[in-house]
């Protein structure tokens, strides 16, 4: 099936929207101005929240809720201290990434084969998150499941890169000013390697993607620093720092933006709702998903990269469901953030056969969406299970929407997958 037209959200300093006629080549830039700011409900502060009881799995019985292990400490503890630490860590890591991306775009290195600045930012972000969490939560046992490790950095030819990362980490700490520390190259290696945990169903584990959407980062588009905490196998808090995501809704393409504020920090704690604030600013607003039941009003998100998700399958599902808007293609878990604040109603993700999803690509995003009133499942309707280690065991793909739309979305997904399988077997 032919690919539908798509909308791509480009990077923050030049927040243009562009339409793509094909999923395989970069779309021409249309320069459509962003819409008027959507009136997110603002609070001057994020209220403290202490869940009083275990929450049951949400969702109608028409789809399976395959995972329901309890959080041992939930009736007696909340995660305010951990959430505050996570927000500090992700925000500081975002500063480092912003510095690197600025230099990356200036040097126009996107056209070169040299990926080193990306590597520097990935490692630097992971080191900062690890160091900040340890400084903020010194009395807690520390376990981190994260994407990077230092094996390549230990090689002789990487000495210069390691020095660059260490300088970046120290410059970020000193320019921000909260922590008066100076770290050595050995400290940086150790901080990165503390992310080697396997996670699992017991105890607490931080889950980090230091730069989610690396391809978007290199292109100058969207990316996210995604950090979550697992407790007894369940995600109990999540933070998404999205340095290039406009603060205002990206839903409407016909309005004019009176403000040009870029950079969002999404956060959520189990049972306490989801919030968004400007990155590096203190006041947060409660957010909620779009509650439309009518697919004709629902736009959907998918990966910008066709290699990461089957655009043709998403297109078939959207058609079956009666979605009329073209897909909005954005890199990274910024998709979860945008959906959580109601910019669109559906996120569809169908990796090519054989790909195994990692927990750091969905842990933070999924709690931000579910605490905003949404629901994230695999293509069979099973809740996402983060308790199995570094990978998610999934049936076919990931779908996210509001609770009213989920039953019809699941039906459309399953029909489209069945038809695709049948037509493949006839070839
Ligand atoms: P997205 O921004 O939605 O394209 O997702 C970005 C994430 O997709 C990256 O952080 C990778 O971890 C993950 N990824 C990498 N390769 C693949 C692949 N072949 N299929 C699906 N996801 C992938
Ligand atoms: Mg990722």
In short:
The protein is α+β, with helices and mostly antiparallel strands.
Question: Considering DSSP H and I runs of 4 or more, what fraction of the residues is helical?
Answer: 25-40%
Mean pLDDT reading: 83
Radius of gyration equals 21 Å
| Major sheet attributes | 8 strands, mixed
- Global outline: globular
Give the CA-CA distance, first to last residue: 15 Å
Question: Any ligands, ions or cofactors bound here, and which?
Answer: adenosine monophosphate, magnesium ion
Series of secondary-structure elements, N-terminal to C-terminal = EEEEHHEHHEHEEEEEEHEHEHEEH
The unreliable regions are: 11-48, 50-76, 253-258
Question: Based on helices, strands and strand pairing, what is the structural class?
Answer: alpha+beta
Q: If strands are numbered along the chain, what order do they take across the biggest sheet?
A: 3-2-1-13-12-14-16-15
Strand content range? 15-25%
- The overall strand count is 16
The total count of helices amounts to 9
């Amino acid at each position: 099936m032919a690919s539908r037209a798509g909308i791509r959200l480009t990077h923050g300093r030049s927040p243009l929207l562009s339409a793509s006629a094909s999923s395989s080549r970069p779309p021409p830039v249309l320069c459509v101005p962003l819409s008027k700011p959507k009136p997110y409900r603002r609070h001057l502060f994020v209220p403290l929240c202490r869940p009083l009881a275990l929450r049951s799995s949400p969702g109608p019985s028409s789809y399976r809720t395959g995972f329901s292990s309890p959080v041992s400490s939930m009736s007696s503890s909340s995660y305010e201290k951990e959430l505050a630490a996570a927000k500090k860590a992700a925000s500081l890591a975002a500063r480092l990434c912003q510095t690197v991306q600025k230099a990356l775009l200036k040097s126009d290195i996107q056209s070169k084969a040299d990926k080193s600045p990306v590597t520097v930012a990935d490692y630097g972000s992971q080191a900062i998150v690890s160091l900040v969490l340890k400084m903020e939560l010194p009395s807690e046992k520390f376990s981190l499941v994260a994407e990077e490790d230092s094996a390549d950095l230990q090689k002789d030819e990487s000495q210069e890169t390691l020095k660059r990362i260490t300088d970046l980490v120290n410059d970020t700490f000193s320019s921000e000013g909260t922590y008066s520390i100076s770290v050595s190259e050995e400290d940086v290696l150790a901080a990165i390697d503390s992310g080697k945990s396997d996670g699992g169903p017991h105890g607490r584990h931080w889950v980090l993607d230091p730069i989610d959407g690396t391809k978007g980062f290199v292109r100058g588009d969207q990316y996210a620093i995604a950090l979550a905490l697992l407790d007894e196998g369940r995600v109990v808090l999540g933070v998404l720092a999205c340095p290039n995501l406009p603060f205002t809704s990206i839903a409407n393409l016909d309005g004019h933006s009176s403000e040009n504020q870029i950079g969002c920090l999404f956060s959520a704690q189990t049972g306490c709702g989801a919030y968004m604030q400007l990155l590096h600013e203190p006041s947060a607003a409660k957010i909620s998903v779009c509650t439309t039941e009518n697919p004709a009003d629902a736009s959907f998100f998918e990966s910008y990269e066709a290699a990461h998700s089957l655009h043709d399958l998403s297109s078939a599902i959207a058609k079956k469901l009666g979605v009329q808007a073209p897909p909005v293609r954005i890199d990274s878990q910024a998709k979860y953030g945008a959906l959580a604040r109601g910019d669109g109603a559906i996120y569809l993700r169908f990796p090519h056969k054989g790909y195994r999803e990692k927990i750091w690509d969905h842990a933070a995003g999924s709690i931000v969406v579910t605490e905003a009133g949404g629901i994230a499942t695999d293509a069979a309707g099973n809740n996402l299970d983060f308790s199995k280690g570094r990978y998610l065991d999934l049936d076919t793909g990931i779908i996210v929407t509001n609770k009213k739309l989920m039953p019809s979305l699941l039906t459309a997904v399953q029909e489209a997958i069945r038809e695709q399988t049948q037509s493949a077997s006839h070839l």
